[in-house]
Amino acid sequence: MKFLTINFLLVFASLAVAEEIIIGKLCDSYNITNNSTDINQLIGTWYEIAKYGPKEDCSTDDICKINATHYNVVHQNGINSSHNHAYTIRNENGTINSNATTSAIQILNIENGTAYALWSCLNITNTSDSTQSLIILSTNTNYTGYKTVLANMGFDNTTSINHSPEICNVTSYGTLNLASLGIVTLIFFVIQIM
Fold first, then answer.
1. Which domains does the chain have, with CATH numbers?
2. pLDDT of residue 69
3. Measured between alpha carbons, how far is residue 87 from residues 31, 64, 73, 146 in Å?
């Protein structure tokens, strides 16, 4: 008797997905007083309403807890599914790290419970510049109060993200294109002949 056994193993490759740009300020030049390392407050679905870097309208982030220290973030774009991707953030002894940024992430409380910023910053050696990523998340697509809060902290030059029905293809929300996740598929065939 012959048996054919096929085993499939999917390996999800990590992607550096947060937009990092060079800012002409050092990380300690900001007035940050309301940062947190509690990722649990971010569990759920959020609208990206502003960020550093190129505009990407109709974007959402769905954050879910994997275990005590690891959280999965699924980024979806309602216009272009090729921009969809997933990455992990983790709390390691009070420091939030990610495979999406080159430095630790700080959670900035913009408006308690309804708007947060995910900010990472790394000073560039022997310069007065830093490499940063900044994404503003909100439960409200029309929230603009973040502008004043960020200005008071010393941030500027964020790009607003549009979620208007005229722009967004609402049917694309909730559809994750796995091909865009950078999936590396390894297929092992084990043939047993008896």
1. 19-177 (2.40.128.20)
2. 93
3. 28, 11, 5, 25
